[in-house]
Amino acid sequence: KAKSCFLQCGTLTHADTELATLLTAHRSPTMTNGDAIITDEAPFAQHKQRLKYLKRWRELAIRPFEYECLPQDFDLLQHKGQDDCDLLMIRCLEARADMNNHLPTHELVMDGDLVPAESSVENAGQGLFFRPSLSGPRVILAGQVICYYCGHIHDFHSSNRLKDKSYLMMVANDVLVDPGPLPNIKARYINDPLNEPYVNTKFVPEPACDRCAVVATRDIKPGEELFLSYGEAYWANQGYEGTVYSGKGVK
User: Fold this and answer.
1) Residue 129 φ/ψ, nearest 5 degrees
2) What's the whole-number mean pLDDT along residues 121-130?
3) Which residue, of 11, 109, 164, 210, is most buried by count of CB atoms within 10 Å of its CB?
4) Cβ contact 142:219 at 8 Å
């Protein structure tokens, strides 16, 4: 069983559920419901569909019809009797790697006004700051979507093979995302102050889009660093204690 060392969205309130539904319903015109988070990116959608039938085949022993298979998997249909589960596992990993290598461009919200820089939290590395451009907003309003936490898409099985799980987040059930290999994902730089009064954002999961929205929990002014809670499970499985941010320094 995978350790709970990934970031967690926490328990959804009724308001969070309504917000997630609203965000999904009003996402970018390039986004659609269904299996693919963006269907104008043909390779991504194709690899994701392949992974779907391979997982169903391996986990539930439900063989796809020939018309559902891609040519590289026709050989599996020729096997008589018991399926080769080890080979199916290898094909699942191949399909997932191909899918993650063809991720569509992630949706931008306020990313142009967010700047990674040295965090106010001592020894925390880089943090994420709201530094609006001349044409940017003067304030981030409470309830506003700031950016998205997204990245390579995993399930528990594939996430166990990751060497670095420090950016891994569970979106919902068996859907996890890892922006670790993708430095352009701004949300990955948001730190946990381990001091609730300084938390100014939260995660709202959007499992249909394989991501979490980062939503402001209060108004955020220019120059402020964004903070959110990683969750108790994350820190319980780290080999070190995080630094508690005091606002004026570190304690």
Assistant:
1) -120, 145
2) 93
3) 210
4) yes
